[in-house]
Amino acid sequence: MQERESILVDLMSKPGPAAPTAAKTVQIAILGTGMGGLCMAAQLRRAGIDSFVMIEKAGEIGGTWRDNIYPGSGCDVPSHLYSFSFEPKVDWSRKFALQPEILDYMKQVARKYGLRPFIRFNTEVAEARFDEAESLWRIRTTAGEEITANVVVSGTGQLNRPAYPKIAGLETFAGKAFHSARWDYDVDLTDKNVAVIGNGASAIQFVPEIAPKVKKLTIFQRSANWIVPKPDRPYTEFEKKMFRRFPWLVKLHRYQIYLTLERNFLAFIQGSFFGKLFERASRKEIETHIKDPELAKKLTPDYPAGCKRILLSNDWFPTMARPNVNVETSHIARATPEGLVTEDGVAHKADVIIYSTGFETTTFLAPMKIVGRGGRDLNDVWAKGAEAHRGVAVAGFPNFFILYGPNTNLGHNSIIFMLECQVNYILQCIEALRSPKVKSIEVRKEAEDAFNRELQEDMQRTVWAAGCSSWYKTAEGKVTNNWSTFTMRYWWQMRHPDFAEYALGA
Ligand code: NAP
């Protein structure tokens, strides 16, 4: 087996148990070709395992980075840490990469590891059902085809299905409307009255891009966000040259970024001093750019920093101060053919409505139907809020693994780090399955429950458990999306599976 490199140099480099000498072939189906799916596939190839198929519902790879092509789309995690440890990119053009460069990077990874021949494009999974007699997953596509695999690894992510607001009368709206994750470049926004619903991580990136060209832009804001400056700039040619010449500098840079971001977790502990520092930095930005006290009040959040994602932007507040931009805080009551009417009775004329209302995040693998042992549907098991063992495995669902699953999202560090931890762990489970004596691996319910009990107890000290609503939690208030502490702790837990936590079926 090719020696695995590390996430953070050699932190992750310990290989799992060696593949059994008389290893049998394990067929693996990877769902999705976003960062998670690509990471899994590349690592399988690096481990010398070619018995896998990648199932992709779209016609191209890239997941969220294929779909989110809105103006200004980019990443708020520094580029050098938003790349795989085993595939560093030395020539990132800037500190915070934009979408085209990230998608190019993903295509480059697919090319380098020869992944395209493994991908079945335009194939959507409707159902995956575990055949207990055969210890096999039977995957049914929406076209009615069956694909079988010993192992299923879901890489469909948390941010792939746009959420649309439910507004009375929306079907009567006579203009154009689209979601920011499905940007319609055929709609020319020049000199138009544009309504943007939502002001989260996506809106703060595209609103400053479109504001100069539209006639009037109205932002319908339900809650303000804590927004701090983005320390972005292009890398100089000299820096890129040094990174190229001394690859250890890239590793050092990754370490430095990782440790800085890791420290930021302190801001997510209720009442923390670090959280107050973010609030102070954000208030200062408002003071600098917003001279109208009423607007400044509207733009200042009334909940602790971190409860919703802390956003990075240098141009949001200047954009809010533009004469053609209006921040509307009265809630939307209904839509009419001409636009939107707010609860205060004011009619807001709109030619175009852009929904920047986020994603369906708490239902995870839905609308796919995942049926495990005894005919149990994962969507039913998760009816009171998704949970999994270490974010990757669920009792009753043998040989089934999830990337970027429940409680593995972060507010402070790179998801790629979490994905690499998960892939490292799942690879070792797959290696166990390659033993002729092992047909199935299934997490024990007691282990899963103990893990989640501890995680939710830990969660109580975080800002996510505090009052504000966010996409991190269910309507009932259970935090199903976020990891509760430092990522180092996750890394530590995910170095090797504890096989005592699993039932290995012969
Ligand atoms: P989001 O952060 O969930 O924001 C959705 C916005 O829509 C919020 O302002 C929300 O208001 C508002 N909203 C939702 N439903 C509404 C309704 N019915 N009526 C009025 N307003 C409504 O979604 P997003 O901006 O697409 O970002 C989602 C996540 O994607 C981010 O948190 C981040 O993890 C990821 N992302 C990352 C980057 C990056 O740079 N790495 C960039 C973009 C997105 P409330 O706040 O009041 O609920």
Distance between the termini: 25 Å
CATH-defined superfamily of the largest domain: FAD/NAD(P)-binding domain
* Regions with little confidence, pLDDT below 50 for 5+ residues: 1-19
CATH architecture descriptor of the largest domain:
3-Layer(bba) Sandwich
Features:
alpha/beta; FAD/NAD(P)-binding domain; five-stranded parallel beta sheet; 16% strand; disordered N terminus; binds NADP nicotinamide-adenine-dinucleotide phosphate
Could you describe the 3D structure shown?
The chain has 2 domains: 28-161 and 360-505, FAD/NAD(P)-binding domain, CATH 3.50.50; 170-231 and 270-355, FAD/NAD(P)-binding domain. 27% of the residues lie in helices and 16% in strands. It has helices at 35-46, 64-67, 99-112, 203-210, 237-245, 247-263, 273-289, 293-298, 316-320, 378-381, 415-433, 445-459, 487-494, and strands at 28-31, 52-55, 119-120, 125-131, 136-141, 146-149, 151-154, 176-179, 193-197, 216-220, 227-228, 311-312, 325-328, 332-336, 339-342, 347-349, 352-355, 369-371, 400-402, 440-443, 502-505. A hairpin with a 4-residue loop joins strand 15 and strand 16. The longest helix has 19 residues, at 415-433. It binds NADP nicotinamide-adenine-dinucleotide phosphate. The site of NADP nicotinamide-adenine-dinucleotide phosphate has 24 residues, from loops.
